[in-house]
Amino acid sequence: MSPVHHKDSEVVLERLFFNNRLFVLIVFALVTVFLGYKMTQVKPETSFMKMIPTEHPFIQNMLNNKDDLENLGNSIRISVEAKQGDIFSADYMAVLQKITDDVFYLPGVSRAGLKSLWTPNVRWIEVTEDGFEGGPVIPQSYDGTEDSLSLLRENILKSGQIGRLVANDFKSSIIEVPLFDKNPETGAALDYEALSKALEQQIRQRYNSDLVDIKIIGFAKKVGDLIEGIGSIAYFFAIAIGITLILLLIYSGCLKSAIIPLICSVIAVVWQLGLLSCFGYGLDPYSVLVPFLVFAIGISHGVQMVNSMGIESSLGADRLTAARRTFRGLYIPGMLALVSDAIGFLTLWVIEIDVIRDLAVAAGIGVAVIIFTNLFLLPILLSYVGVSQRAIRKVQKNRERKTRSWELLSYFSHPVVAPISIVLAIVGFSLGLYWSKDLKIGDLDPGAPELHPDSRYNLDNAFITRNYSTSADVLVTMVETPKEQCSSYATMSAIDQYMWRMENVPGVQSAVSLVTVSKLYIKGTNEGNPKWQTLARNPYVLNASIAQASQLFNTDCSLAPVLVFLDDHKAETLDRVVKATEAFAAEYNSTELQFKLAAGNGGIEAATNQVIESAQDKMLLWVYGVVSILCLLTFRSLRAVVCIIIPLALTSVLCQALMAWLGIGVKVATLPVIALGVGIGVDYGIYIYSRLESFLRQGKNLQEAYYATLRTTGKAVSFTGVTLAIGVGTWIWSPIKFQADMGILLTFMFLWNMFGALWLLPALARFFVRPERLSTVITVNTQQTTDSKKAVA
């Protein structure tokens, strides 16, 4: 974009907005009222399908077979613990029956798949002299007497449910509750917030007593707890607004200068949320943090406007003239920074997970509205209210005296200091790359890493993991065959070999399939002799042996899932199981037999990890590529691109090293942080470089130009960086761990992006920017030169 085009666009927009100020304010007010109303209709929402990479081959395999798979990964487990004694008491069993009945009628529950000691699909089987005998674990004759409880104990021992539905110590039992992603009664997406509240109010609160203690885990409960924690975000947002207002008052010395950018930034948030409602979007537990980022970006640009307004007013300009000059001087760098932010956020769209794509849309819309609220509305409001005389005197006083701190910082551009800074940056890059090699993909902790280790959910998960042999983490491998061939000896033998290999993979507890049932049946028909616990080659025997395993193959016997129970869902555990499965599939797969990954929560996590791992570098390339191209189009200089981008890249590398050091994995919650940090951080570099370039064109040497830049734009950048870091730093005390992690990372990126712009950018300019060349780049006319001297970027 040439300077002439810059000039033309500035003149047209300046006249359009400032010559029609009252009309513009009326339009802004009407739009704000309308979008404010729409904002009230935005509700927290989430969906199981939005949280998973639906385009990944694993998930495609799962969805293609969803009608034949019982465990898609979307289920909850309710543990009912007997506080005194064990589960073999009439009172305990009566409470368990009531809980099972209540859970049965909760919205979204797959009632056919519900499992409890009280459901008829939990059965026992044994071999007797007369053949096989079996029945429901709790017989119809159960009446709570000692004899019936004794019979119940025997049935449980024969059912094979110890360690699965019944705890190893017999002091608790599980209710397994598979869920639909849509409420079958209404057809609407399952409301996880409502379901979580129902579980709390109708199950935990109703039945927790001196007799039993209720513990609940599962995807739906985890999301419900995250949504519950969202309420605290409003408090952090209010705290951030309060902190920002106080610091703005201290910085500007003017109440009007503090309130106006605050109001415009809040209006930007209102517009963003209103537009999300208009487009049919809601706020999930991950994108709910975006409004604060929109507010932060708005404050960043608002401070630049207020700073420039004060300087222009101190030079004797009236309110309207000062506002017009402020707009004229900041329109180009502000527009560049915001467009870079918006497009940079939209690059998150390359990640094939809908919840991240929704976050990209929310952030992109938020930044787009800042163009209107903070680049156009804010200077128009300032043209009416101006700045106080006290603020003007403060600016004049600062201009008349030399500031020792800015003078010292200007030495970052000195010919002697600049090379030292470059060397330190190279060392920082090297150390960051070395430390970031330990950065892991996926979850690094058991339970729900999005929540704190001492959260109710993670304590419940720890209890169930500790007391049951069967983990809540399951990876399901789908074995596909032609119709009626899943019980052939060749298929069953291959499944048997696969199970044996899986059970020897570190991190695997056990594996279950129709082979498990077949072996038990064959052993049972041979007087229970363990030597006969093997597969028979006779097809009639095999077909008969799987009659009781109907849940472990589909109706036409073309699909037989293998359930692999894992110690946890850590990234390295999932990676080992996936690689072992893929190696086995490469050896055994044929046109007649296919081992396909993967369902269950473990399979979904593995697919998510792979998508994130492949998208991480792609996302960074897109973010930096887009920002670099926009900087190149605006400044028409590769040297400018280098000066702006390298400090950002250093911050990204150091942020990854910090994540590795803190044990924060790259996952759905943390992957967008780096892109968001780059998007916000590029503002600093653009404003600094734009202002530095304008002073260089006036004939100043580099150190003089940088000193002048620090006294104007640099002052605003440093204030913004510190203010936003303090505001987002309050997230560290959030009850939601992933928000606390984001608080740590964004605080680090805000500060380092600010520091990089103030420290490394002038050092790079010493080597890449030639002041003598700038004088030949732009010479439009005398008036433009005058305006350039007065504009504050």
TrEMBL record:
Pfam families: MMPL
Protein name: RND family transporter
Keyword entries, A-Z: Cell membrane, Membrane, Transmembrane, Transmembrane helix
Its membrane topology: Multi-pass membrane protein
Segments forming domain SSD: 258-384
Compartment list: Cell membrane
Primary localisation category: membrane
Ranges annotated as spanning the membrane: 21-39, 233-251, 258-282, 288-309, 330-351, 363-387, 408-435, 619-635, 642-664, 670-690, 716-736, 742-765
Record's keyword annotation contains Cell membrane: yes
InterPro entries reported in the protein's UniProt record: MMPL_dom (IPR004869), Mycobact_MmpL (IPR050545), SSD (IPR000731)
Any one GO CC term of the record: plasma membrane
The keyword Transmembrane helix is assigned to this record: yes
Organism: Zooshikella ganghwensis
